[in-house]
Amino acid sequence: MAEIITLAHGNGGKLTHDLIKNIFMKHFSNDILLQGDDSARLELPAGRVAFTTDSFVINPIFFKGGDIGKLAVCGTVNDLAASGARPLYVSCGFIIEEGLPVSTLEAVVRSMGETAAACGVRIAAGDTKVVEKGAADKLFINTSGIGTIPDGVVVSGANAKAGDVIIVSGTLGEHGCSILLERETLGISASLASDCAPLNGMTERMLAATRDIHAMRDPTRGGLATALNELAAQSGVCMRVFENSIPLKEETLGICELLGLDPLYMANEGKMIIIAPATAADNILETLKQDRAGRDARVIGEVAASPPGRVIMKTITGGSRILDMLAGDQLPRIC
Ligand code: MG
After folding, report:
1. For residue 328, is it within any domain?
2. Which of 77, 159, 293, 322 has the largest CB neighbor count within 10 A?
3. What are phi and psi of 123, to 5 degrees?
4. Which tens digits make up the pLDDT trace of 287-300?
5. d(CA 9, ligand 1 centre) in Å
6. Domain range holding 293?
């Protein structure tokens, strides 16, 4: 086995096959991949099919709390979970920069295999391409995912209604903050780690406890403020949130204050926004708190009829502040 990825690893010949056998099959092996055909044949349980895709270009590829492989699986699984789906199958496409150590690739692939197993999904298809030095930065991964939505589950960003409560599953901004600290030499030492985690176990338990969930969204790039703006626009409602209810770690607040950043716009990779009738809130919170990823869940606001498409925050000092979508790029290559 070579120690460095070369262009020949992506040409479909012997080295590609070595890579598939010694790296991908070793960590992903399952009966679907072993079919060895041009496409995977999948069994799907009854229900509507949810299908999503995402590309991962994060820099650096290893960070406190995760790596690009774990992030790729969690990102795709969480988008399926946000639709009320039970994630089942994931595909992965690797674009590798020539010169990447094989051991680095294997560490990422191992992490993907472990994360997929932890989520209960199978990696059912994959592809590898190698590009010349400088044509990519180390490693990019695309993942797609398929899941099924059980009968009776109707969760959509368009379904938020006036009178609903807005719940978040935990403290916000940690992925964005921790990647920023990894990348810059700011002289700040922090224990903050990315919150990168799969959420499908948590959402499945919640949907088993109540079908009274109108909308969900994972607040990734652009953070809470951007995700709430998307939901407000999609549902044609106003999202009102209370600053003193928004869960933030002291450390996140401190770093954001120091750098002049707003934690409400910082990315999360292991949090869910849940919008549901007020009568279901206690039941939802109780279920969320049973999960590690939902320990700090709480109600942060409510849905109002107007002004439609707006997100308004009641500040700690009693004022009102309009939270707009993220403008510009707070931090590129965050996921
Ligand atoms: Mg999403």
Report:
1. no
2. 77
3. -80, 115
4. 999 999 999 999 99
5. 33
6. 164-322
